[in-house]
Amino acid sequence: MPESVVLGVRSGQDGSVVYLADPVPASEVLGDVPEGIEPRRILRFASHCASDCVNRRGSDCTLVERVLARPVAREDGSVPRCHLRTRCQWWTQTGVAACLRCPAVSTLHRADDTLAELVADPATTKEQLDDWIAARSGR
Ligand code: SF4
To answer: Domain of life, per the record (predicted)?
Structure first.
């Protein structure tokens, strides 16, 4: 979307998002991404909510409800220093719970990342997510 911003850069082995000091308009950055690299693999984008979004339910975002099923992204429990907070639907809706998981959310996930696939799918129920995570953790 034309108004999209780059919120952070995915880094490290797990691809966690490192948040920029200030979001940068995506249009200013996309030209610097090397040819052949899918920008969503290395950058985390944010944009306005769309009225026809498949994740919308009234004024709520159902995507963040599924994101909350994920384990927290940072073992030290620290919250990202994020400049979108005052305008963030996820923060408005869930508070710090979303921020604790936000660094693990990618705009484009790997094909073999089943958890990310389930979280991204609007048809996935909370029970399905909980069952999948429980099965993986051997509970
Ligand atoms: S969930 Fe938290 S860290 Fe993520 S974009 Fe919103 S305010 Fe920023």
So the answer is: Bacteria
